[in-house]
Each structure stands twice: as C-alpha cells, then as structure tokens.
Design a protein that fits this description.
The complex is a heterodimer.
Chain A: E1 5-8, H1 12-21, E2 25-28, H2 34-39, E3 47-50, E4 59-61, E5 67-70, H3 75-80, H4 82-87, H5 89-96, H6 101-106, H7 109-113, H8 120-123, H9 165-172, E6 175-180, E7 183-188, H10 189-192, E8 211-217, E9 225-231, E10 242-251, E11 254-263, E12 270-271, H11 273-279, H12 286-297, H13 308-325
Parallel strand pairs in A: 1-3, 2-3
Antiparallel strand pairs in A: 4-5, 5-8, 6-7, 6-8, 9-10, 10-11, 11-12
Helix pairs in contact in A: 5-9, 11-12, 12-13
Chain B: H1 15-20, E1 35-41, E2 47-53, H2 55-59, E3 63-67, E4 100-101, E5 107-113, H3 116-125, E6 127-132, H4 165-171, E7 174-182, E8 194-199, E9 205-209, H5 214-225, E10 232-235, H6 251-263, E11 267-270, E12 285-293, E13 299-311, E14 333-342, H7 355-373, H8 377-383, E15 388-389, E16 394-395, H9 401-412, E17 425-426, E18 429-441, E19 447-454, E20 459-462, H10 472-484, E21 491-494, H11 511-535, E22 550-553, E23 556-559, E24 566-568, H12 569-576, E25 580-587, H13 591-594, E26 600-612, E27 618-628, H14 635-654, E28 660-661, E29 666-667, E30 686-690, H15 709-712, H16 714-726, E31 732-733, H17 737-740
Parallel strand pairs in B: 1-11, 7-31, 9-10, 13-14, 20-21, 27-30
Antiparallel strand pairs in B: 1-5, 2-4, 2-6, 3-5, 7-12, 8-9, 8-11, 12-13, 15-16, 17-18, 18-26, 19-20, 19-25, 22-23, 23-24, 26-27, 28-29
The chains are: A alpha+beta, B alpha+beta.
Chain lengths: 326, 741
Amino acid sequence: MNPFTYSRAGDLDEAVREISDNDRAKFIAGGTNLVDLMKANVMHPTHLVDITRLGLSAIEETEEGGLRLGSLVTNAETAYHPQVAERYPLLANAILAGASPQLRNMATNGGNLLQRTRCYYFYDTATPCNKREPGSGCSALNGHNRIHAILGTSEHCIATHPSDMCVALAALEAVVRVTNRYGERAIPFADFHRLPGDTPHIDANLEPDEIITAVELPPRGFSQHFKYLKIRDRASYAFALVSVAVGLEMEGDTIREARLALGGVAHKPWRNLEAEALLVGNPANRETFKRAADRIVADARGYGSNSFKIELARRAVVRALNEAAK
Amino acid sequence: MTTNYIGKPTNRVDGYAKVTGGAKYAGEHNVPGLTYGVVVSSDIARGRISRIDASEALKLNGVLEVFTHENRPSLPWFDRNYQDQDQPPGSPFRPLYDNEIQFSQQPIALVVAETFELARYAASLVKVQYVREPHGTDLRAIQGQAYAPSKGKPSWKKPRPRGNAAQGMEQSIFKIEGRYDHAAEHHNPLEMHASTVVYEPSGKLTVYDKTQGVPNSQKYISRIFGLSKAQATVHAPFIGGAFGSGLRPQYQLFLAVMAALQLKRSVRVTLTRQQMFSFGHRPATIQRFELGADAEGKLQAVVHEAIQETSQFEDYTENVVNWSGTVYQCDNVEPTYKLVKLDTYTPLDMRAPGGATAMAAYEVAIDELAYAAGIDPLEFRLINYTERDPMQDLPYSSKELRACYRQAAERFGWSNRRPEPRSMRDGNELIGWGMATGIWEAEQKPAMAKAVLTADGKLTVSSATEDIGTGTYTIMTQIAAETLGLPLENVTFELGDSSMPEAPLQGGSWTAATVGSAVKSACLEVQKRLFEYAGSMPDSPLAKADADGVVFADGRIHLKHYPTIGVTIQDVLRHSGVDRIEEEVTTLPDMLRQKKYARFTHSAVFVEVKVDEDLGTVHVTRVVTAVAGGRILNPKTARSQVLGGVVWGIGMALEEESVLDHQFGRFINHDLAEYHVAVNLDVPPIDVIFVEENDTVVNPLGVKGLGEIGVVGTPAAIANAVFHATGKRLRDLPITLDKVM
C-alpha cells in the first residue's frame, strides 16, 4: 500500500471537484473492496476522498412510483428496508446472498456497483493481468479459470463481475444516477457495466470524475414471481460460480413478462433479451425454460476449468425459472 | 475411581483471557521502539535473482534496512545449523542464502522500518530482476519421475509388504481397482505466522514466536545465530491455531532474529495471508488401490500405491500406504510409496498427516469393495474386523472400535438405510448415507515438567509445551489439581516458554498423554514430600498412615477410610518449615511394556449428505462420530477437538484445494476468499460419542489424544455418502459440484 492523502468532502460539488482535479484520486465510502486492493498493491490511489458525509443515504419513492436507493445506503440497510423487502424481494435476496453481515454493514450501494473482479490473477501482482496492467497479458486464459467468464469474453480478459446485487438490479432494469461537473445524467443499468473487449481495465461506463448518487428502481418489482439462485463452492461467503435473477409476470400458467439476468458468467450482469422473449407468451414449463436456457448458453465458451459453467448455467436458469414461476 | 476434576466438563481456564483480548499472540506483543519487517516474496518458482535494487526503498525516511542475500550478515551456512525437530532428510531451506530461487513466494528480502505501513510500502519499491528457469510443479504430469525414498522423517516407517498380494487378488471373488487423487491443502490457521523479537538493552533476545515447539524454535535460532540458551528465550503462550504449520520454525523467525541482531532493535515480522501459502502444506497425493475379497467378503489382498510431492531440497515423507495394512485383517498386503520432486516448498505435517490422506482414499475403496460384494458397508467392516494389529502382529492396548461402530450406527439410524444408491430423496435433493473408519496413533513421548507448591497452597506447574487451541492449559490444570487434591483455582499451568522444562513438539495428538504424564508425575513427587512432612507434624493424625492409605482431596490429606481424619495442605506446609516444594521430573514412556502392544485411537463416522441432482451441490446434513480415545480428561475440550476435526474433514472432502498454476508454479488461490474452508453454514449438527477405554498401557493417564482422529474418517464417509446419494463414485478430492453434476 502506497502513502496517500485523505480528505472528507462536505458536499457533492466538493467531491466532484476533488476527483476532477486529481487523476489518481479515488472516492472511498465503505472501503470493503478498495482497501483490500490497496493492501494487495493492485490499486494505488494517491488521494482518497471520503464521501460518507454527502447525504445520499436515503431510500425514498420516486415520482414514477419506483424507489430511489441512495448510493451511500449500506447493502444491509437496503436489503432490510421494508419497501425493498416487500416490493423488490429479488433485490433483497440477491444482496443477502452476497458477502457476510459484517461486509454488508459497511458496503454501500454505489460501491457495490463498482467492486472489482475477484480474478486470482488480478489480485496477484506477480502475474500478468490486462485489467491491472493493460497490455501485460491475461493469465487466466490458459490458467486456473474456475471462477471466470463464459459469455462476452475477449482474448484480453475473461474476468467476471462479482456482485450479486447487480444481477438483481440488471433484471429489474434499474437506472444509475450520476453527477459530474456539468450536472446529472442517468445510465440504464444494462449500459452501466462494460464487456472487456480490448479495454478490460475499464469496468464501467462511468467517467473518472463522476459520482454515483443513486440507483433508481422502476415501479415494477416482480414481487410475486421471482428467484435469486446463487450457486457457489460452499454454502455461504463465496462468490457465485453462476447466479440467476428471475422476475416473472404470470397470467395463470402463462408467462406475460420475463426478466432474467445471470451473474458469475460475464464481465457484467448478463442479460439475453432473445431468451427473455422466448419465455413471454409461453406456458411456464420445463420445455419453455429449457428453450430460454439453451438460447443463453448457445453463445457460451469455456476455457478449461470453467467449462462446467456452461451446463451449470443452463441448469441454473431452468431451476430459477421453475422456482420463480411457482 | 472418584475424581473431582478428571473427566469433568471443565471450561477453558484461558477462555476469559482469550475472549477479552488479554491473551497476546506472537504478533501482538508491543514494546517501545518496536520496528517492523515486511517480507518481499519471489514472483517466480525457479531461477535466479539477477538484480535486486532496494535503493528506492532505502531513500524513504524511516526505512532502516533492506536485507537481501547480498547484504545479509555472515552466518554459518551448514545444513546442520538449520536443522529442526521436524526435519525431513535433505538440505533445509536457508533464507537469503544466495540468489537461487527454489519456490514461488520464496522470501528474498526483508524490509525493516519504523512503522508497519512504511515497511509495507517500502517493500513494494524493491525492484527485482530474475533469470527464469523452467519449473516443474505438476504432480500428475511428472509422476513418471517418482522414486522410492531410501529414508524419511524419523516418524516414517518404510512400508513393508506381507503375504502375496498378486495371489490374493487371483483368489478373490470380488475385486475393485481405482485411482484416488487429492489436492494440496494449506493449514491456514486464523493467526498468521509471526515473530516479535524484543531486543533487550543487554543484547538478550526475548522472542515471541508462533510455534508448536518453543524448544524447537529456541534451538533453531541458537544454532544459526550462535546464541546461548540465556541469550535468547522463545515464548508462545497463546497460538491462534496451527494444525502442524508451527512444527518447523518458519522463515519469519529467522528474518526477525537476524534483523534484531543486526539493527540492535526490536523487530516484528508478520506474514501476510498470501505468504501463508509460501511454506509447508499437506502434499498433493495420487493413490491407487487394488482390493480383493472372497465370497464371504473377507479381504484377500490390498495393493496400495501412493505418490506424493516433495520439494527439490528435502524428502518429506508421510506414513500413507502403511494404514491400509493396519486397519483390517488381511494376509496379503503390497504397499508402495514414492515421491516426486516439485519446485515448491517442502510439504509439512498437517492434521493427521498421511492418515487423513490414506484413509480418505482407502475407506472409499473399502466401500466400493463392500458394494461389489453386495454387503452393507458397516457389516463389511465388521467381517474384516481385527483384534490384533496385523501390521506389527501385536495385541491392542485397547480397541473399542466395535463399540464405536455400534453406538454411532444406532444413534445415526444406520439400520434404516436402503442400500441401493439413489434410493433416498427429498425434492430436488438426493439423500445419501455413508460411513467410514478412522484410526490414529496413540503415542507418548518423553517430557519434563516442574511443579511448585507454595505456602499459600497455590500450585504452579510448568512445561515448555504449547496450547494451539486444543485445551492444554485446561487439562493440565485438571490433572495437577486432581493429583494433589487442590481446588482448580489454586492451580496454574504455565507453558510456551523455552526456559521451562522441555517438552516435545505439540503435535501428533500426543500432548495430553505426554505432558499430562509428566505433570502427573511431578505432582506425585510433590505429593510424596507433602506426605512426609504431614507424617512428621507434631501430633500428626497421619503419623502411622502409609502412602496408600491416604487421599489428597479438597486441599487436605486424609485417611482413605476415615475421611474426617486428616490435615490441610496449608497446615502441612506451615509446619514443615519450607516455604515451597519444588519438583522437576522427566517422564519417559514405559517402552518395555508399550512395545508389546499396538496403540491406536479409533473412530467410526456416519454422515448424511443431500446432493442437488441438477446443480451438483453437496451439503452435509448430519454427522455422528464415535471415538475410542482412551480416557477422556475433559469432555468439553475433547468434544471441541473432535468437532474441529470433523469440520476439517468436511473441508477436505468438499472444499479445500490449494491450486497450483503451472504457468507460474504458484499457488494461485492464496487467500481465504478463494481457498475455501468450511463456513458455519457448511457445518451441520455433529454428534460426538466417546466410547471410553480403560487402557493401562498407553501412558499412566490412560489417554490417547484427540487432536487428529476427528479428521481421519470424515472425508471418506462424506464421499461414500455422495456415492449412496448419486450412484457416482468420486475418487478425487475435493468433491466440488462440477464433479458431481
């Protein structure tokens, strides 16, 4: 860990100004990922801007009837908030499937979106990694890639996004609110995270001088038919090998609307709109679910130790849809 | 026999200190002027350092020194100076010896600074250039290079064949053959390895080290740095788990002592979690079995081969193939044991070394043979039960394994099991029931102890042993209190100080037996003296009593048959004219008697798993284990030992794997996020039954030790339960979901 300076921003303008003035500055809130990465010598910010006093810590209704989750609300507060638990149980379940109570008490919603991959090689500075050091190569391609991506990969990076929360947010079609020097903008969740392509060192479509202020949930929460299924190597406190967030609108046994997002399989929460379309208007049965699952994994590619994820993802999608449709 | 303390569930005497932070661990001793050392580790597995440049680090204000192979002090560099009590044959690793890299994460520099943060930053500025050489770390790929070691560690027994296994196989009606692999595992105690070396103004060193043997660490640094016993003492009053990782002095001890002597300052070196993957580990092992049984299910042949990894510089050996010829009756046994040299650090004993490895595979093979013969797995084991140790051809000092099978099976409900695989189900989940046998050595080693009784009636007993979380403090206090009939709160047991009477390494499940016997013996000497003084007191009611006719209880010495007639121990001391009674003893095992018997701890483990058929996830939902471990000194700490062992078995069966990336020759999942140990949610209710044994051979206390037996049978019981659930025979550990799917 390198020496760094620290300041506490009093308001949003100050925070944005501080981050804009110093290209080696980073925001810090819960610090549950950044501090680890600094200790591991993976990230080297020279200045930390503490944003924990900015407010942004409310959960309130939006004009459209959705819910605005302040970026500084902790993961734990979000998951246990009565409105979230009741209207967006998919999100609450996803959050509670991640990390540990101690971490969820510290981690914030904005930080959750920006947590970095858990790729072994990204964390180990003795090995090449294009995400850590662009151009140095990807060690995972021919290495141990059990936890790596099978969809949307590139020859430069096969890392995954590790969040559970974000998988649910993708399925719910949340919107990320950000502020910069010129004002505010809204980023649809599907456009927030990126695929690695030839710039795997950039995780998200967030400019270095922008700050996340809130995540907005649309009114529809799929609270009647939902499932967050997380499959991992132990019962708790492990990142997903494959996770599936499902939200369905049902009319009798017929699926009227379907949202489906996968975690642990790609550089971002993975959605496949064609697969979702295959579900709509069809009876909620194994045939329908399999068709959607097959569509999703049709594009998948394994790299050796993660090849089992293709079949696992297929089965997980079928299971999650089946449970959600009940 | 009536007892006040032995056999009673007693809370840990050090529990309060531990939960309130009063217990200080090696990296927690603070002294004024303490400096901090951070280790720089090698990026490569094999090759040479061509250039090491510490100039950027040394520019920082507050960085005291960067020690490398180029500027290390001149020290003796003979192998014998680096030897320790758990030394395999070969040439021990010598930190900062020269520019050669022998394994990934080899320590190549120590940066010492006034603060930890500064040292850590400075360490990141040390620039190293390497000349890489090809490394070999893939055991499976180079198993063709395996060789039979001519000698091994002192505890290693050269495998001995008996009978004619080929003929036995030919005669067999039922046969199985299979290969069983398991991955390397690291100990990963919660507390990282650390050494704090306090440099006294006189030049004396007080060293706090994470070790399972303060005498071992003390002798190690004495030999290397030429320090007398008075010039350096080593202390380890508390240890946050070790599981074998502290059986050899680790390099942070060497580095901290070296830096303290050079800088004439106090130095602390604490390894990172990543660096905990830079030294000893349970070796990856490839095993092969051929087993045959006759029409009645009697074992006719056991062919057992094991190939284990070792380092380039030492021949680390485990007793692996020996166990298959020990557990059941069989006349034809053919064991083969081989090593393959890898460019990694030497493996190191890890909780039930060799035994856990062997039984995790052998008890699966036995299950396969039972299925092949169409015999219930428990019944199959009873058919092959042996009342004599077939390996040494000796009777057992005690063996209540049959009772373990019966009691655990009954508690588990084994008789309700449907034998066919895939015959039990709960929704999406298949249910499986499996069982296995566990076995471990019941050894006693020589040890010393000292007991001091003072005029206030307080007893202090000491021995340079350790408590790695096992409960040593507590059971030794119980033994001493029991022997002298003193209230528990009047007894203090001290350990973990190299100036105390010597004890062997804390390992091998022998501490209760070994140190316990010495503690008892020291207290018996005090008893003798007290009895003499009591008899010579004026008007002593015990003047005519003989030693067998009195009892030490409740702080008094009284007549056995007239408990009201007696004297208090404090009165005895008051009248004796001495202010203290001090006795130091050396206790040796009764070899003449012990060598006539085979001495083992046994267990039976029964496990229920639920397996998600589609997703391959395995959950252990129930464990019942019965342990025949001699006399149980403290049911509470004893149970904790077995619980911990079973949890380890769950990890070994389903989760633990140190993954070597062969591109870099490096353990790549080197943190607790990706090296998975069992978490709370993985651990079901565990039912522990103790089948007590009255064993007068193993040691004067009749105890057998429980630190390791909990692990031994558990992985195979789980693997067998997975087979029963799914019909899939999985022979490679850990059984992760991709293998089950």
